[in-house]
Amino acid sequence: MLQRFLKAFFLLILTLGTAGAQPPEPKREIVIGLNPSERAENVQKNADLLAQMIGQRAGIPVKMFVAHDYSGLVEALRGRTIDFAFFAPLTYIFAEKIADARVLLKAERRGRPYYYGCIIVNADSSYRTLADLKGKEIAWVDPTSTSGHIYPKAALKSLGIDPDTYFGKQTFAGGHDKVVLSVINGTIAAGATYCNDTLGESGSWTQLGDGAYNRKVRPIFFSPPIPGDNMATSQFMLDAYPQLVRKVTAAVQSLTADSAGKALMQQMYHVDAMIPATSADYDPVRRAAELMNLDITGKVRSGEGAPTDSASAAKANQRQQERAKNAMISYIVLAIGLVAGVIALTWLTLRERRNRRALVRETSAGAAAPANSSTAQYLLQNLSVVYRDSKGGEFTAMRGVNLEINRGEFIAVIGLSGAGKSTFLRCLNRMNEPSAGTLLFNGKDITHAAGAQIVEVRRQVGFVFQQFNLVKTITVLQNVLTGRLSRTGWFNSMIGRYSRQDRQLAVRYLTQVGLADKLNNRADRLSGGQQQRVAIARALAQQPNVILADEPMASLDPKLSEVVLQILQRFNRQESITVIVNLHVLELARRYADRIIAFRKGEVAFDGKPDELTPEIIEAIYRMENEELHRL
């Protein structure tokens, strides 16, 4: 009773406190989020044209944000990085809970506001029924894909088939096109994807890849009807900008009224029309999610929504007791680990000092210079990297690379996924061990650097990871300050004590990336895009000579992507910091880089100025052959 009273009291205070709030600033542009059914770069090709069409009809500039997965799209709406989003059905129902999403329109295909999930096999295979797939491998699209996972799996369960035991192995391909390609190439026996009818006449295999997959697969199982994909906004937008929401809704609805807009919507999402929708339209999807007890990541939930019968409750209570016991054990192990860590860190620090003194003595004594001395900041000579798996197999990720990188260059690295871009970056700061060739940094051979030498290299090279690599339980400011650890005494770093100058530096870079108001927020309370900006500020706080960035725009909307590249470009120009960044968006590479290096199959396919990158060269770089398709 007291808890309810306090909750009501604080809600009243909050209401009174915001009653006199000023109306929000007028929006000068809107951002719409897309989730690609094919590779993001394919959708990006038409995104600008779609933005232009919507903007002309709505009377406001529009930018598009192409997310890399379903959860990222929800997070972007929650963080108000985007104003509208095109959602898959399951993603939308979680966006309602997590991001306060409100559906506006839903897709209509072939005169019907619904579609199906289905299981496909290779058209040349002997598989004809579900019984033929028992014990075989199957691929789903994504844990939260409605047609490519949730609906077909729920339909199987309704027939008494448990996919977890029925199939030999289950994998997530990451996209509808990848499922289709895997089935065609024979790397899996079956896959789940979308279709527009239950006759097998229209589906992902007839619509993706400009019809290249037509008649190469055969559907053998169909789910119940699925409400169409939709466009949604947030409750915040409805409250703050109701007139703008109406204009954008009308603009999107009118897209298919003319031939150009209809062709674009067909090409991007195979949609004939967008019609009004309500939240109740997606009740069947909610029931499917509840049947499978799923959360936004596609994993089985615990707690709310779990079974409540006595047997399940007893099991839940037992699990709770086990978790409490395990937590106590974890605390004890953590305490022991901390003591051992202090001892180990002290020993490593003393050893590092000895190594540094030895390195200084070696340099002072006039150690032999490398065989090929150069004024280049980096010099790669016939550098190769070969990965080996647990079974002894080998994969050549980088082969015979010869490059010279001069101080102060701004280089964009492009190429298909798996072409060797990340391997190249990780070689430059010696996170990857070269298998052959020579790597020089500032005239010194670091091909097989170790000990004090590799510490010194990494002190001078900042790295921005695609997956942030933040400590989620500490503040934004503390995360950025970890970039100063290499210049802080070991004892101060252990207790988290930094100088005033270090703190000022961290605040400066957080301000530069637009997070001055988030200094004391925990990292796990930020959106994905905000976390990536923290990671960039951390790299800058290191004050390196080189910044390596591995797809740092993956979680940022288009506007923030430009902001980050502008920041990197400014430091590149003003302080002669070498910037080497992996980019998937070719237009950004052309706009910001002085030099573009393209990788294909682990080899350098292009090295030159952006204006030398002709359409023929681009086609050669991004052309997908059988081996690339097979890896998908």
Describe the overall structure.
Residues 1-22, 296-300, 302-317, 362-373 and 626-632 have low confidence and may be disordered. By secondary structure, the chain is of the alpha/beta class. It has four domains: 28-111 and 228-292, Periplasmic binding protein-like II (D-Maltodextrin-Binding Protein, domain 2, 3-Layer(aba) Sandwich), CATH 3.40.190; 114-226, Periplasmic binding protein-like II (D-Maltodextrin-Binding Protein, domain 2); 314-367; 378-631, Rossmann fold, CATH 3.40.50.300. The strands form four sheets. The protein has a six-stranded mixed beta sheet, sandwiched between helices. Strands 5, 6, 7, 8, 9 and 10 form a six-stranded mixed beta sheet that branches. The chain has a six-stranded mixed beta sheet with strand order 18-19-20-15-21-22, sandwiched between helices. Helix 2 (40-58) links the parallel strand 1 (30-34) and strand 2 (62-66).
